[in-house]
Design goal:
8 strands, 45% strand
Length: 130
Amino acid sequence: MQELYDFLKKCKTYYLATVEGDQPRVRPFGTIDLFDGKLTIQTGKVKEVSRQLLENPKVEICTFDGNCWLRISAVAVEDPRLEAQEHMLEAYPNLRSMYKAGDGNTQIFALTKGTATFASFTEAPRTITF
């Protein structure tokens, strides 16, 4: 998990794909945390991505560091604990202007049942399951 977390942090921005009905939805994300041994992402309950994740928790993430790309396929499971929210907000203090732990809007999702693949044009793909 640490390797995945470090790579996502290094890239800073990744693209999160969700599903809405039969339409894929992709948007840039920047929040990634390692909490209780799981990769977690953060959003607000008022956002469409929240509704999409609750209706269909299957997600894909893709990011690129200039040489190698990482694709993650996982199931996003809501972690409602205040500790998860506080941990994320400590990692991203700039979010505190919009979110507060326990505010009823801050939402954390843990990535579970995942497959992560590192790939490039010069090396064979390497897969990690979690």
